[in-house]
Specification:
Rossmann fold, 309 residues, 2 domains, four-stranded parallel β-sheet
């Protein structure tokens, strides 16, 4: 397979296992390029990409920008805080105004679930979902799975537990879809108030004890508590959450095996993960950041190739 089955990247639910493998193989090539003295290739020299972020982002935005620059694309950056959205302009009008400047692709983060799908049906450009509310975050899931593959050589049969605020996490849902398509077993772990009721219907194991979860798994992906998305209190206090679900070296030392520790960032050190664990030899958190650029280069490159076919 040499091309993706879709002209957009809206979520992992729509991708096939072959799509994911193609993205990984392409990312392998780009990772080799990123380790060369000259890290730039002219692959997207004639493509203009708009980064349209209606929510704050540091890592994802920088990672996409770096991927675009490494591919020699022209970049337009858009922030809703300093735009006419604050004056009441609609999403379609905003993006159409950007597209009238002859933009080919839109990388969009938006607080409304389904915003990228809505946009893909209403504007003439390729859309990459950089996170839509609590729905999906496809490139994060791809880089997470790619990082596990790099560490364990395969995902087939691997046991991955996602720990923390599953209810408000777009990363969790995309990871579940991605990992299952690649043959991994997936569990979620956290307080019952932070685990959505529908999650069992996705074929996911539900756990509430952190020590039992890490004894079961090969890989633990620790999520932060998303206070900014919580309208009510889901647990008594952060201190109590940390006592129950904060991963420490004490947990890891009690195991008779080593597990891989991941985190999509930003890390709340001392809350969901201790500094000692985050900086330990079992952590691949910095590898995830590095792999994020290669994965996003691969997605941009493969979608650009769809335009020419």
């Amino acid at each position: 397979m040499t091309r993706l089955s879709s002209n957009h990247l809206l979520g992992l639910k729509e991708l096939t296992p072959d799509d994911i493998e193609l993205i990984f193989e392409t990312a392998d090539n780009f990772k080799a390029i990123l380790n060369r003295p000259i890290k730039k290739v002219p692959s997207l020299r004639d493509i203009t990409i708009a980064n349209v972020f209606f929510e704050n982002s540091t890592r994802t935005k920088i990672s996409f920008e770096l991927a675009e620059k490494r591919l020699s694309a022209d970049i337009v950056n858009f922030s809703s805080a300093s735009s006419s959205v604050s004056k009441g302009e609609t999403l379609i009008d905003t993006v159409n105004n950007i597209l009238s400047m002859k933009v080919d692709m839109v990388v969009m983060r938006h607080p409304a679930p389904g915003a990228s799908l809505f946009l893909s049906k209403n504007v003439n450009a390729q859309i990459i979902n950089a996170g839509d509310g609590t729905h999906e975050h496809p490139t994060q899931a791809l880089l997470d799975a790619y990082s596990i593959r790099e560490e364990h050589s395969t995902l087939k049969g691997k046991k991955v537990v996602i720990v923390g605020d599953i209810l408000h996490s777009r990363v969790a849902l995309s990871n579940i879809y991605c990992l299952q398509k690649l043959g991994a077993e997936v569990a979620v772990c956290g307080p019952s108030t932070l685990i959505p009721k529908f999650i069992g219907a996705l074929g996911v194991k539900v756990m509430h004890n952190l020590q039992e979860a890490i004894e079961w798994c090969d890989v633990a992906n620790m999520l932060r508590i998303q206070m900014e998305r919580q309208q009510t209190k889901y647990f008594p206090s952060l201190r109590e959450y940390t006592m129950q679900y904060g991963l420490t070296m004490k947990h890891l030392n009690a195991l008779n095996k080593e597990i891989t520790i991941m985190h999509p960032g930003p890390i709340n050190r001392g809350v969901e993960i201790s500094s000692e664990v985050a900086d330990s030899g079992q952590s691949i958190i910095l590898n995830q950041v590095e792999n994020g650029v290669a994965i996003r280069m691969a997605v941009l490159y493969l979608l650009a190739a769809q335009r020419e076919s």
